[in-house]
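Lecture 7 notes: from sequence to structure.

We start with a single chain of 588 residues. Read the sequence below before looking at the structure.
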Amino acid sequence: MKLTAPALIFFLVFSVSACTDQTDQDKAVIADTFVLATYGTLRTLDPSACYDATGSQRIWNIYEPLVFFDGSKTDAFIPVLTTRVPTLENGGISSGGTTYTFPIRSGVKFHTGAELTPQDVSYSFKRNMIADPDGGPMWMLLEALTGHSSTRDENGNIIAGIFKTIDQAVEVKDDSVIFHLPRPYPPLMGILAYSSSVILNKEWAIAKGCWDGNINNAARYNNPAPGHEPLQKITNGTGAFRMKSWKPSKEFVFERFEGYWGARPALKTAIVKYVKEWSTRKLMLQNGHADRVTVDIPYVPEVKAMKGLKFYRVPQLSVSFALFCQKVDPTGNPNIGSGKLDGNGVPPDFFSDINVRKAFLHAMDRKTYREDVFNGLVIMPTSPNIAGLPYHQDVPVYEFDLDKSRAALQKAWGGRVWNNGFKMVITYNSGNAMREAAAMMLAENIMSLNPKFNIEIRNVEWKDYLVQYRSFMYPIFITGWAADYADPHNFLNTFMHSRGVYGRFMAYKNAEVDRLCETGIATVEPAKREKIYTRLQHLWFEEAIGIPLYQQINMRTYRDWISGYVPNAMLTDEWEDLKRITKKIPPG
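Now the structure, written as tokens:
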């Protein structure tokens, strides 16, 4: 069944109302305090560098973009720091779709007390594009506003004239900010709603070590090292909440910003607690010590049996894959053993042999994974262009067949894989039971083929996992992708282009794939785009690029005293719009 994005955005809400025998002290304590227990760890708060759902949740509540999604819609937007969403009809979009004009809202204050100006808006976009950290989100804005997906070429050298192009792409005129695009770019509004498009205070950012505002000095601020981006641990937004404290891998505390320009939130405080063990999260939810906890699909039957909860069933425009890196960095790498095909390791280019990739694909039992891990509450993807996106097709997949897996490994590397055996590590992010199950299944099925095969499973904290796979340390890395905007380019380019967010870290390169990705986003006519994206989806299968794992159906679980959540297929389980949340604990 081919779904459209609006068709995907459905949800079922049902409450289980019952009196509990808990005392008020057992509950999440205070009516104006919200407690969320989850397992995602935070790496950075710098909007130019943050490219994960955990960080985005923090940034969206502290900072604000020009526009945001209109309720549950993925293709309609409401004004936030602009007073008008530009359209062709209202004249905000002009010059054949290459000029966007945003009137900037007045009377808005940053958390430090400074007032928002159009210069702050212009500076924010320029600063983030100039920084452009490797593996970060800025490729989207750069592609839309400059025609390049990076400020650097494939060798890491700064592209000549790119900073001048950035400077000319964003203009302040009176009380408005104007974007000048090199060509029409249909997904732009979705990009402007993303957490990398939030607005900074120019004076504060410069004082904290960000770009100094002189375009001639831009190169000095390009590509800061991971962990050294200027705004990694500090914030100053216009949002309804500001950061009160952050204890890495323990908790993050928001406090209400009393100078907020919009409606005053009901919550005064929100606490995100890091709790990777499901048993502990479950107990916190059951006893009322948390208002919401992360509930992975395998644990849904357990929470369904509890009283006093509220559930939302939300299909997501997000997907998880096990991805093969075809050129691992061998330097001090504990994940590839000896680094040779001698029975005690794997070579750095182990997965460059398509037979190895096919063998692992045939070793994934999709049917068992779907039923045993997800209880059927999942969509099984066939390519990165998942259900809910335009031009989605269910393309062929590698069926679970250990005989075919064995045959592929017997051919791999001229027979040396089979004869010598190998040793390697598969990693997943700590606390994610769904990815742990996939890693275990792959390892057990591959090792069952030959006693010379040895695969170890390790869990790694999310903040460290991000750094490690971006450093080419994992032969297989298991990760997910949530839509930045509801367009196939955001998924197929990400996973398949040699400069894509994941394509680059797989060290995957195919000239036809690169050409199709670049042509697809530059093409406006739907029939031509459909042909391009159909070919790309089939190439995913033909090239055996990675293992499609799951397109999640999020079962968001709250205590029934919490209201205000608005489901949206674009926003993952980590997202919580704190300014909408209200809490009313019943007496008794």
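The longest strand covers residues 546-559. Keep this in mind for problem set 3.
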